[in-house]
Amino acid sequence: MNSRFNALDLLSSRDKIQNKPLDTMVSEIFACNVFTLPTMQQYLAPKLYKAFVQDSNSGESLTRDLADHVAEAMRKWALQNNVTHYAHWFQPLTGRTAEKHDSFFTLNGNGEAIEEFTGNELVQQEPDGSSFPGGGLRSTFEARGYTAWDPTSPAFILDVNNQKTLCIPTIFVTYGGHSLDYKLPLLKSQAFLEKSAIDVCQLFDNNITKITVTLGWEQEYFLIDEALFNVRPDLMMTGRTLLGRLAPKGQQLDDHYFGSIPERVYAYMTDLEMECYKLGIPIRTRHNEVAPSQYEFAPIYEDVNIAVDHNQLLMDIMERVAIRHKLRVLFHEKPYAGVNGSGKHNNWSVATNTGKNLLSPGKDPAKNLQFLTFFVNTIYAVYKYADILRASVTSASNDHRLGANEAPPAIISVFIGEALTKILNEIEKGIEVTADGVKQALNLLSKIPNLQLDNTDRNRTSPFAFTGNKFEIRMVGSTMNCAAPMTIMNMIVGKQLKEFYQDVQILMANKTPKDQAVLTVLKHYIAESKSIRFEGDGYSQEWAEEAKLRGLGNYADTPRALDAYSNPTFKNLFIESGILSEDELHAHYDVRLEEYALKIQIESRTLAEMCMNQVLPAAINYQNILIENVLALKELNLGENSYEAPLQIIEEISQHIKTIRDCAYSMKNARENANKLDSKDRAFAYCDLIVPMMEELRAAADHLEPLVDDEMWPLVKYREMLFIR
Ligand code: ADP
Ligand code: MG
């Protein structure tokens, strides 16, 4: 029996996994494995606790003495929870998390075993970062990357099979202080946005002295049984199916979306949620997604830094819990051709210390100038810096979604809904900048809140949509670290608010009353940024054509999208905002190009191997049977008609075999040539030469699939992967 049927047998004989009935309330266990502020308070002297809260709120660095006390508090808490090791937990540019574990156990001067954890160990560690992507910032022989504690994200206990580790969220930098991760740029971007946002807030409300960026992500994913996963080398190596013919039924009937969750998946989800609650990840929503075997988790939104950590942690836990359930999670943006891919919508907003969401229009007209300011500035920022936002979400795997006739398109446009479109048009054209005009504009806005829920969020084809009180960034891929697009959002909106503030100051210096000055500038921005606003069908060909006329960028693949990193305007923005230095920017660019080429290289090798080692032998074996059949029929002397059909199939199979063989060899040559190029040319070669070859190879294999006897086909088929639960 071939491995496919073994796997199917294994799957159908699985015992049901029964979850223990829930015997605690979520509120009783929530964050029990997190060193939250209230927990810290129990383990620290009041004076020290107060100092810690003050320093981390103000962004001051903590003294070594205070760090020692915090480390001691963490150690006590951890040991009481049977934790044996600690780890600096960080987010290198590979897009997932990394950790290096050390034991609390050590020997003291007398050779006696003790458990120790000092401020030094809390604050800094050298994880020997030589094998994380560094884009030339750190040559391997130096190997001096180090991790540094981020006190704004709480430490937590990771419990893997009762082996407990205290994980300390950290940033990862070179010895020279260059960023090598997603977290340092994110933290810097937040500070940058905060500075200009507070200046702008102060125009409206003196009580606003602190702002936080809020992020609520929506994680989409596919599940597949472990046995099926294990017999698909492509899923194991690349996270997606590199070949496989569409099943007759895909998602046409829309019968999966919000349908009842299959029992086995339900058990997985509830198990996972319990793990999340203990770690303080506020998972709130779970449901089926559009494609068969596709699902989604979403939390309550949080401060962006914590939300990013929680998403990274969630992905890790999702994989671990899946293994307990004999399942595998597919995070890839496009695991299966022909059905929907997965994204990770990022809901982005800005909140104030006064408890206000700056992107929430209110009923009180007087407050709405502030809303309008943040709303219009965000749109204007996206208009001016669309290309760099596009670059932030590009990757080999997300290329299958963006621009590939799938949600959402690669062209960045902003959807705001009919009601707000009307208001912006009215402000632009119909309202004079007088005291009365200001009142008129604000009255218009105060009618918004009730309309909001019905009017927005209906357009699923927009990559960037206003959904009532936040912007939903839909281009983000399901495998990505949210920090990448969040950093860009904070940077471009921060820069835009800074300019807005200056523009308003200039008018006010000329005796224009504040509200009129604000409206004048906003009117100008609304008119300028009009071309980025689009309310129609983002998937249509007409939109692609219209967007071109409007001068909007349309970068369908990663090497082209990444070009934004070498655009001087964007470069200056990174440098001026202090978020990435020129060296860092170059390194990040290089890492992304490298990653792209490597991903395609792995796919190309895996595909060729599967075609040569699995598809061809099956095709040839079946062809041999047909040949015997033809020979036997000929001997019967029933005439040509009797063996014409098998003969034709033999010929068809021969053609596809030839295509596969030729393609696999020329692809190998193309890879060898590409690998001699520098990183940019290499990425382009993989994109423009090797990707089309892979498509040709796949087409030949997918043609063979329905020709060859099902009993002899070695690879688990789409219908089996998508529909068996
Ligand atoms: P919808 O389903 O219409 O997209 P939800 O209210 O379910 O809207 O929100 C989706 C995600 O947006 C959730 O993760 C939610 O926490 C998040 N979200 C809601 N309000 C905000 C906000 N002010 N800032 C950031 N994220 C938010
Ligand atoms: Mg949503």
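^ magnesium ion complex. The two ends are 22 Å apart (CA to CA). Residues 595-723 form a domain with the Four Helix Bundle (Hemerythrin (Met), subunit A) fold (CATH 1.20.120.1560).
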